[in-house]
Amino acid sequence: MIIALDGPAASGKGTLAKRLAQHYGLGHLDTGALYRAVARDMIAAGKSLDDEQAAAEIALNIDPGSLEDPGLRTPEIGEAASRVAKLKAVRAALVDYQRKFAERPDGAIIEGRDIGTVVCPGADVKIFVEASTEVRATRRHKELIEAGHTITYDEIHAQIAARDELDRSRAISPLIPAEDSHLLDTSDLGIEAAFKAAIELIETTKR
Ligand code: CDP
């Protein structure tokens, strides 16, 4: 079974994806980490974030072992990830990586922006996870403060709004719900309630 979870920044897809992967005993791929890893490696190599050729080379050689790096979770890397995510050659290389992951015999839980629309259009269940910008900024702010970053709520709110705009307006694979996706608004749902709502959606709609 392939479950596609898409949605904007800090909508709660990551936490939900991990819980679902555990529940169903499936592999989980956080595709945002792939784009973040390309951004991290571009910055480390001193490359301009618009250098498509260099970024594609890096995207083709992602080290899967480096995707858990906590250094990927900073706001700066998130913003840089959104910039490299606009590049066609980067998307092509990373979509390949994601589709290979999706070929696992039991299936997988894959989270991102374009999983239901581009990466796995035939996914068994597609969920588009949403939450208001205020709720998302509050969650991300808490997460970053707990990880030791010094940043204000207002800065996070502005960054999230700017990144959403970039992700929604880009020419290739913009952030948009697949036509056959189910909307899950987690604005008023805690982790447990969102998990239960997702399970109900999956159990009633899976093919
Ligand atoms: O964790 P958060 O929701 O803030 O972001 P993320 O899922 O780690 O994704 C970081 C950035 O990578 C996004 O803002 C997108 O620009 C890009 N991305 C993408 O273009 N396509 C995906 N399937 C996943 C992420």
What's the structural blueprint in terms of helices and strands?
Elements (H helix, E strand, L loop, with lengths): L1 E5 L6 H12 L2 E4 H14 L7 H9 L14 H10 L3 H15 L5 E5 L2 H5 L5 E6 L2 H14 L6 H17 L12 E4 L5 H15 L2
Parallel strand pairs: 1-3, 1-4, 2-3, 4-5
Helix pairs in contact: 1-9, 2-3, 2-4, 3-5, 4-8, 7-8
Description:
The protein has a 5-stranded parallel beta sheet, sandwiched between helices. The model has no long low-confidence stretch (mean pLDDT 95). Helix 2 (31-44) crosses helix 4. The chain is globular. It has helices at 13-24, 31-44, 52-60, 75-84, 88-102, 115-119, 133-146, 153-169, 191-205, and strands at residues 2-6, 27-30, 108-112, 125-130, 182-185. With 207 residues, it is an alpha/beta fold. The chain is 54% helix and 12% strand. Cytidine-5'-diphosphate binds at residues 9-10, 14, 31-32, 35-36, 78, 81-82, 85, 112-114, 163, 167.
Distance between the termini: 9 Å
Question: What is the 3D shape?
Answer: globular
Task: Describe the sheet with the most strands.
Answer: 5 strands, parallel
Q: Structural class of the helix and strand makeup?
A: alpha/beta
**Count of extended strands:** 5
Structural descriptors:
single chain, alpha/beta, five-stranded parallel β-sheet, 54% helix, binds cytidine-5'-diphosphate
Quick structural overview:
With 207 residues, this protein is an alpha/beta fold.
